[in-house]
Write a structure and sequence with these properties.
By secondary structure, the chain is of the alpha+beta class. The protein has two domains: 32 residues, no CATH class; 84 residues, mini-chromosome maintenance (MCM) complex, domain 2, CATH 2.60.320. It contains two helices and seven strands; from the N terminus they run αβββββαββ. Strands 2-1-7-6 form a four-stranded antiparallel sheet. The protein has a three-stranded antiparallel sheet with strand order 3-4-5. The longest helix is centred in the first third of the chain and has 26 residues. It is elongated and about 85 Å long. Bound molecules: zinc ion (ZN). Zinc ion (ZN) binds next to helix 2. The site of zinc ion (ZN) has 8 residues, from helix 2.
């Protein structure tokens, strides 16, 4: 009687199952760790931490340096800044959906004013 599976078949089958398991883990991880918190750092120190979901603006004034961080249910962005280059304002909005695709990932950085906005997952 002919064997149903040869040893080679079993290897291919096991390999395919391992790949499937790895793929499932990869696709599950982002869903479990969907960003839900906005952390704002000034001079590398935590300045504010707010849950993502409600519309609000946070003004950060230090001497003559000013930044306005805005958030709504979808994401967070640098609404205003008086830094010389305005790169932070041009970095646009971070959302849980685009944070992995942006050049700076889950961060908006205002280098001149030393303000960092970060979208993170908090359990
Ligand atoms: Zn800036």
């Amino acid at each position: 009687m002919k064997k149903l599976f040869t040893q080679t078949d079993m290897c291919i089958l096991c390999g395919a199952l391992l790949l499937l398991a790895a793929a499932l883990l990869l696709f599950r991880a982002p869903a479990r760790e969907k960003a839900n918190t906005v952390n704002i750092y000034v001079d590398n120190a935590l300045y504010a931490s707010i849950p993502l979901g409600e519309a609000r603006t946070i003004e950060i004034v230090r001497g003559d340096q000013r930044n306005v961080v805005a958030a709504d249910a979808a994401g967070v962005w640098m609404a205003e800044a008086n830094c010389p280059d305005h790169t932070c304002v041009e970095q646009g909005k971070i959302t849980p959906e685009n944070e992995r695709l942006r050049a700076l990932g889950n961060r908006i950085i205002c280098l001149p004013n030393r303000v960092t906005v970060e979208l993170v997952w908090t359990p």
